[in-house]
Amino acid sequence: MRFTLKAALTAALLAVPGANALATTITIATVNNNDMVVMQKLSKQWEQETGNKIKWVVLEENVLRQRVTTDIATHGGQFDIVTIGSYEAPIWAKRGWLVKLNDFPASYDYNDLLPPVRAALTVNGTMYAAPFYAESSFTMYRKDLFEKAGLTMPDQPTYAQIEQFADKLTDKSKQQYGICLRGKPGWGENMAYLGTLVNTYGGRWFDGHWQPQLTSQPWEDAINFYVNLMKKDGPPGAASDGFNEAEALFATGHCAIWIDSTVAAGMLDDPKQSQVAGEVGFAKAPVAVTNHGAAWQWIWSLAIPSSSRHEKTAKSFIAWATSAQYVDLVGKTDGWGVAPPGTRTSTYENPDYLKAAPFANEVLSAIDSADPQHPTLQPVPYTGIQFVAIAPFQQIGTTVGQDIAGALSGDTSVSAALQSAQDSTTAAMQQAGYLN
User: Fold this and answer.
1) How many CB atoms lie within 10 A of CB 10?
2) Which CATH number fits domain 12-135+298-356: 3.40.190.10, 3.20.20.370, 2.60.120.1140, 3.40.50.1820?
3) Which of 31, 200, 208, 274 has a CA between 20 and 30 Å from the CA of residue 245?
4) Are 179 and 233 in contact (CB under 8 A)?
5) How far is residue 162's CA from residue 112's CA, in Å, rounded to a whole number?
């Protein structure tokens, strides 16, 4: 009787289309960005096709990084798939923390991945993370406000011009702010933007001997510019604004200029999500004394921790979620303008996408021009534009971000914040063995 019942249940399960008698549940940790929200919604199709299930752990960016880093470093095994970037992928791969992703089916078409994107996630010829979307940074601005004020945004603005525009377009009585920029502390929050600002002011994190440079003149100039600009022309409470908060401010009409991730373009141009759709212009990231490192490179990617117990199922999901077919699915269900950008050549050859995404060429140009191998005006011993591709940077970047957020909120001066940042960075590099 027990065998007969088991057989009946198995037969009933197999009769369900797409069901799998050996179905598993995988746990995915991801960030609460718009593109990942869409992925969650559409993943029900993968669940139906495979019979497998997904447990989602969706976290704010800083919290995600902390949780995932702790789990993967301790081999905790909480997650079967983690959302990481071009900073973590090569470092963690070299430590043996990630599963190789070199055996997807032929339909995946590795050669369709944009070369700089694939290269950033590859170690010794093997890909260890699959790109979900890739981004650089550029300038977004309100065309209607510029036209009304008689202003013209150049294709390549300078930071001096950005300040002039922001001054003229700020009207705090209407809650209209000339500029919105990230202020929330974190190596991937305020320091992502500020890293590019320091670069274009001629600064660098370390000299050729790994000596921190945070009290150098370029850092002083860049951070003073940022703090003064935000106090004059930015929104209140900016030290709490990360990417999502700044995006919401711009989308609801409160910002004239926003310098941030190219991935925001799709959302801002979507009338279902943005009150300023159709009025958003795009230009290159601003420059100051050099164009080296003025725009970042980042790739939100899906990877499998070596501690996962469901490697085969996890690979199945990643191959689905980062495929050209998935991009097509998003385009047909949610609109081509919000399809995951920056990862595949085929996306930028698709007439439906190009028609719906007037910003496509600017995004592709920004991604192609970002050069992590030469991020600064002066020589440096590291790669990475808005981050330094060494293990201690995650702690360093966040601590420095907290110091600068303190200067932005008025709790300390810029000089004091940078001296504190210099001291903590020196200590961290000594502890990590980079300095004697």
Assistant:
1) 11
2) 3.40.190.10
3) 200
4) yes
5) 37
Dump pLDDT digits (tens) for 13-51.
Answer: 333 334 444 789 999 999 999 899 999 999 999 999 999
User: Structure tokens of 10?
Assistant: 């198995």
Question: How far is 182 from 133, CA to CA, in rounded Å?
Answer: 20
Distance from C-alpha of 124 to C-alpha of 118, rounded to nearest angstrom: 12
Q: pTM for the whole thing? A: 0.90
CATH of 137-295+373-431, one of 3.40.50.2000, 3.30.70.100, 3.40.50.150, 3.40.190.10: 3.40.190.10
Residue with tokens 């510019």: 225
The pair phi, psi for residue 299, each rounded to 5°, is -135, 105
- Kindly state the tokens that stand for 112: 């369709």
The CA-based angle 306-310-314, given to 5 degrees, is 85
Per-residue pLDDT reduced to its tens digit, 327-343: 999 999 999 999 999 99
The most distant pair of C-alpha atoms in the chain lies apart, rounded to whole Å, by: 84
3-state secondary structure of 305: strand
- Do 387 and 91 touch, CB atoms closer than 8 A? no
